[in-house]
Write a structure and sequence with these properties.
Shape: globular
Oligomer: single chain
Order of helices and strands: HHHHHHHHHHHHH
Strand content: under 5%
Number of strands: 0
Radius of gyration: 18 Å
Helix content: over 70%
Largest sheet: none
Length: 272
């Protein structure tokens, strides 16, 4: 507790913890649906789009989140549109958009100031890059994402497990798939400031996969994933503070350890 009190005495650390916990919750909840729908790499693809948008924002001196959020949301719509084309499947569409955006971002960086500290923070994450304005906007958007997920939970559950049956019962599956993609896009952008474009997808994938090692029902996986994501994030931030390690990488390593522990527990449970 004394260590947490010391960490919270720094304004940048308290902002990072509050925003990080909310973003971790959003990523964990959405990650369960994305993993079950075999669409988990959408987070990685959208993070590359976010990097391109943030690079452009830095070049033209525009507020990063104000530009990145609408651009990544638009990319999510485009990704779903391309995926519906029978000639380009989901994984190919993600690769197409992510590589294009990453290339654009690199070109923009090379034509302006080069690989400066700000762009490096976007790629690998930095809690120091989160300003008070960014934190306020991130908190508001994170709460909106959480509220929408809770309100639409029954429909999201339906399209996650059996999209064909959901359509047969009158559920507009395409609409709710779009909602999931848009909420994921917003979450990715919000998490990029701390986790970086190269690591943000871990917040979406790891908690869901780890929870599925021991949980069997959708609701139990959702709850376990949410709790696990927050615990891993806070533990990673504490480790980063104490050991002076990069914050994003520390959170990912803690998630890896949790995944291995849950996998061992699942293996032992099967043998028992």
């Amino acid at each position: 507790m004394s260590l947490l009190s010391e960490m919270l005495s720094y304004h940048f650390m308290s902002r990072a913890l509050i925003v990080g916990i909310l973003v971790s919750l959003c990523a964990a909840l959405l990650g369960v649906s994305l993993v079950l729908k075999r669409y988990s790499m959408i987070g990685d693809g959208l993070s590359h789009v976010g990097f391109g948008a943030l690079a452009i924002a830095a070049a033209v001196n525009v507020a990063p989140l104000a530009l990145a959020v609408p651009v990544v949301v638009a990319a999510a719509f485009l990704l779903l549109r391309i995926s519906k084309n029978g000639k380009i499947k989901g994984d190919a569409a993600i690769a197409l958009i992510s590589s294009s955006s990453l290339a654009i971002g690199v070109i923009v960086v090379s034509m302006t100031t080069g690989m400066n500290t700000d762009v490096s923070n976007y790629m690998f994450g930095s809690i120091l890059s989160l300003s008070s304005a960014d934190a306020a906007l991130s908190i508001i958007l994170s709460i909106i994402v959480l509220v929408m997920f809770i309100l639409l939970y029954p429909r999201i559950f339906a399209v996650t497990f059996d999209e064909g049956f959901a359509k047969a019962t009158g559920t507009r599956a395409d609409t709710y798939n779009t909602v999931i993609a848009v909420l994921t896009a917003v979450t990715v952008v919000l998490g990029m400031r701390m986790m970086g474009a190269l690591l943000i997808s871990s917040l979406i994938i790891f908690p869901a996969l780890t929870s599925m090692r021991i949980c069997r029902s959708f609701k139990s996986v959702i709850l376990c994933s949410a709790v696990l994501s927050v615990v891993c994030f806070v533990t990673g931030m504490v480790a980063s503070y104490v050991l002076e390690l990069p914050s994003g990488a520390s959170v990912v390593v803690v998630n890896i350890i949790a995944f291995l522990l849950f996998s061992i527990a699942s293996l032992l449970n099967r043998r028992a």
